[in-house]
User: Fold this.
Amino acid sequence: MKVGIIGLGYWGPNLVRNFLAHPEVEKVYGCDKKEDRIKFIASRFPAVELMTDYDEMLAKDIDAVIIATPVDLHYPLAKKALEAGKHIWVEKPFTAKSAHAQELIDIAAEKNLRIFVDHTFIYTGAVKKIKELVDSGEIGDITYFDSVRINLGLFQHDVNVIWDLAPHDLSIMNYLLEGHKVVAVAAHGVASYYDHENIAQISVYFDNNSFAHFHVNWTSPVKIRKMLLGGTKKMLVFDDMENFEKIKVYDSGIEMKTTESIHEALVQYRIGDMHSPKVVATEALALGAKEFIASINEGREPLTSGKDGLDVVKILEASEESIKNRGKLIEIA
Assistant:
């Protein structure tokens, strides 16, 4: 298989390295308008054939295109690749508009091509382990999903903090709460320095009364990457900043006992043991590349498909509309 990668900036070298290392990839092409990025990749990965013209790369005998550009370029570049008969890998978020995402999905279906959206965290050992715990029923029915992703980070020139940071955790939420439908979103935030919000809070409502909350911030003095998952049987904490005990499962919960009326409800707290399951340490990007190529060879949808990308973009769009209207509740069709 031969692949072409457009966008050789921050994430580009990681993509180049992983696709070069894949045993079924015989050739990697790289494309970027910036000469300094071309020179950097040439010095690090001499086996990559480099160019500055996207059309020139599409004209090569390649099977798939990996798109790692700013989000506003995802749609036109992806559409061009699909129309040229190439499978596509698109970095998060999939597109800037849900209508564009749906159009790409329709084109891919018509041409029998695969769309892979790089929701990287789905391929981490920690999230895979959490999925096992949820699917096994150990946690019980999920009642809430609470996430904090904050740091003193890079301000993006084209999107706000929601579009930059929230896709990671929204994709994890959708993966873990598979089968539960998001029905409404509300978001609050502030743009302290320029046009785009740098602090935001998102509330997500599900059809089964589950609830999710996200706190994202570019202007925190500390870096926190933490999720709390509440179930009817147990509770779970995922701290991605931990080196060893990334996941902690608490045999804790709340039990409601009623006698004659709701006003006489007795709340009992159950606090039991905590254990930290073993997490397999693997590079998520390598597993993502493996899944993408396998989906092409097997003619199936990848684990993180265009549909998954569309679901996240719908929530991002609703959050954008809500935050511009001071937290107005936005229903999702």
The CA atoms of residues 182 and 255 lie 26 Å apart. The chain has nine helices and 15 strands. The two ends are 39 Å apart (CA to CA).
